[in-house]
Amino acid sequence: MAGFFERLKSGMSRTRSGLGDRIRTLVGGRQWSDDLYDELEEILYEADLGSHSVETILDRLRDEVRHNRPERAEDVTRLLHQVMVNMLEAPANPYELTGDGPNVWLMVGVNGTGKTTTAGKLAQRMKQQGATVILGAADTFRAAAAEQLMEWGRRAGVDVVRQAEGADPAAVAFDTVRAAMARRLNLAVVDTAGRLHNKAHLMQELGKIVRVVGRELPGAPHQVWLVIDATTGQNGLEQARVFLEAVQVTGIILTKLDGTAKGGVAFAIHQTLGLPIAFVGVGEHLDDLMVFDPDQYVRAILGMGESGD
Fold first, then answer.
1. What's the DSSP call for residue 157?
2. How far apart are CA 139 and CA 190, in angstroms?
3. Which end of the chain has less Cβ packing within 10 Å, N or C?
4. At the topology level of CATH, where does 2-90 sit?
5. DSSP letters along 25-84, please?
6. How far is the C-alpha of 287 from the C-alpha of 261, rounded, in Å?
7. What is the bridge-based pairing of β-strands 187-191 and 133-137?
8. Is the bond preceding residue 221 a cis peptide, omega within 30 degrees?
9. Which strands make up the sheet holding 103-108, listed edge to edge?
10. Cα(180)–Cα(32) distance, rounded to whole angstroms?
11. Smallest Cα–Cα separation from 215: which of 253, 155, 173?
């Protein structure tokens, strides 16, 4: 776990310098006073936590300060940490596979969020968990999408089902599920399109994929992962809502946390979409996808030690 925390903390250095360092400067060597709440509010807003999250954090922090009466301003940081952790939902085991047959996971999200890359990283993670995996290149409308997934499949050491560019995405998903069943594999991860001709077309295509895999394998898809790019901040939430209308999303994968100073967007995502964040991406390497841990995440952005030092 120490390795996990250090990699997370390193990957989120830009957010930590904008949020954690400023908070430490705010509280360092001072006694806590009510007039510091306004400065804290500004810092939280600039980390892109979202107005509702900021208001909730400050209200709960005021309650904790009144109840605990911290002697030092530094103690307020520990109270802030606990308040923030309690606002985030710890995911159930996202590696869990259900039933006897293969599970089907759909990857959805706007193009450019890192969806295809994340599909390859998930395949690698699941192999490390002992699962047998196959990938499906159902994003047939984006030039070179299949080639990109083939490369990630090669890196992860898993096969990829693909068809010609422009082929029916549902047919690719069908073939992927069929291959997983025939080979008695544990998991089929299907990459889907993130941008089609219009919103209605996108929803129709995703709906068709869900129906086709559900007919072939009752209970599928077992997970629908919505991939969101942290660098887009709250601007990406409006686009994300389209996918919630099209399919029953089960969880969020937040990518590119290493590329933004606004890594606090996890709070806005959870508060706005009401879905757990299951994984976070903090780099371009195959193993830079980690299970989301609210405690470790908050410690990382606040610049706290693993034990709260």
1. T
2. 9
3. C
4. Four Helix Bundle (Hemerythrin (Met), subunit A) (1.20.120)
5. HHHTT----TTHHHHHHHHHHHTT--HHHHHHHHHHHHHHHHHH--SSHHHHHHHHHHHH
6. 22
7. parallel
8. yes
9. 159-161, 133-137, 187-191, 103-108, 223-229, 251-255, 277-281, 289-291
10. 59
11. 173
C-alpha closest to that of 229 among 242, 240, 221, 241: 240
At 128, which amino acid appears? Q
Beta bridge partners of 161: 136
> Which residue ranges make up each domain of the chain?
2-90, 103-292
Please tell me the distance from the alpha carbon of residue 284 to that of residue 180, in angstroms, as a whole number. Answer: 27
Structure tokens at 213: 């895999």
pTM above 0.85, yes or no: yes
What is 103-292's CATH topology?
A: Rossmann fold (3.40.50)
Closest CA to 123 of 49, 189, 171: 189
d(CA 248, CA 237): 16
Per-residue pLDDT 10s for the chain (309 aa) are 446 667 777 777 777 777 888 888 887 777 788 888 999 999 888 888 889 999 999 999 999 999 998 877 778 889 999 999 999 988 889 999 998 889 999 999 988 899 999 999 999 999 999 999 999 999 998 879 999 999 999 999 999 999 998 999 999 999 999 999 999 999 999 999 887 656 788 889 999 999 999 999 999 999 999 999 988 888 878 878 889 988 999 999 999 888 776 778 899 899 889 999 999 988 888 888 999 999 988 988 887 876 544
User: Is the Cβ–Cβ distance between 149 and 160 less than 8 Å?
Assistant: yes
Q: Please give the C-alpha separations between residue 218 and each of 99, 148, 222, 238, 247, in angstroms, as whole numbers.
A: 11, 30, 10, 31, 16
d(CA 108, CA 255): 13
